[in-house]
Amino acid sequence: MSNKFFTDEDLRVTTKKLVQRMSEVGYRPDAIVGMVRGGAPVAVLLSHFYNIPCYCFNKTEDMRGLVNTLDQYGSGRPIKHVLVVDDINDTGATLEEFHLQAQTFIDLDCDFSYAVLVDNVGSTFKVDFAGMVIDKNNDPCWIVFVPWEMWWD
């Protein structure tokens, strides 16, 4: 399996594409949840762009902590649209796990949408927004996110 390097420029371009695609369908999040680790940088970028709260979620954490955070923020300003972001939707396992937990534990009046920088068409989980699409069935590769996985080189 070969490595493909996702550069700083790729980050800028694909993040802008995410914003453009959300804008095209009239979607504007009220809060962003970044999946730790790869989704955290994207969540911060989008949080600054939209000037909305950003939360990071580690899949090993208890979903109730996120529920309490969203609920506390929501008491001052309604949260209707939560955007969950990650760097890649590879197999779909991470986002599927989050989605199932969210449906089980979150009893808030909000909807969840999903966005990734890179979406693999062979994933079992379908995201709402993708900055770029790859097909690992035709080109099996490992995406190396240079801005946070190799910035020190």
Descriptive report:
With 153 residues, the protein is α/β, with parallel strands linked by helices. The chain is 38% helix and 29% strand. It contains five helices and seven strands. It has helices at 8-24, 39-50, 63-74, 93-105, 146-149, and strands at 2-6, 31-35, 54-57, 81-89, 111-120, 129-134, 141-145. The strands form two sheets. Strands 3-2-4-5-6 form a five-stranded parallel beta sheet, with helices on both faces. The mean pLDDT is 88.
Strand order of the largest sheet: 3-2-4-5-6
H/I helix tally: 5
Helical content, roughly? 25-40%
- Overall average residue pLDDT: 88
What profile does the largest beta sheet have?
5 strands, parallel
The computed structural class is: alpha/beta
* Uncertain ranges: none
Q: Which radius of gyration do the C-alpha atoms yield?
A: 15 Å
| Shape assignment | globular
Number of strands: 7
The N- and C-terminal alpha carbons lie at a distance of 21 Å
Reading the helices and strands in chain order gives EHEHEHEHEEEH
Q: Beta-strand level of the residues, as a percent range? A: 25-35%
Give short descriptive properties of this protein:
153 residues; alpha/beta; 5-stranded parallel beta sheet; two-stranded parallel sheet; 5 helices; 7 strands; 38% helix
SSE inventory with pairings:
Elements: E1 2-6, H1 8-24, E2 31-35, H2 39-50, E3 54-57, H3 63-74, E4 81-89, H4 93-105, E5 111-120, E6 129-134, E7 141-145, H5 146-149
Would you summarize the structure shown here?
This protein is of the alpha/beta class and 153 residues long. 38% of the residues lie in helices and 29% in strands.
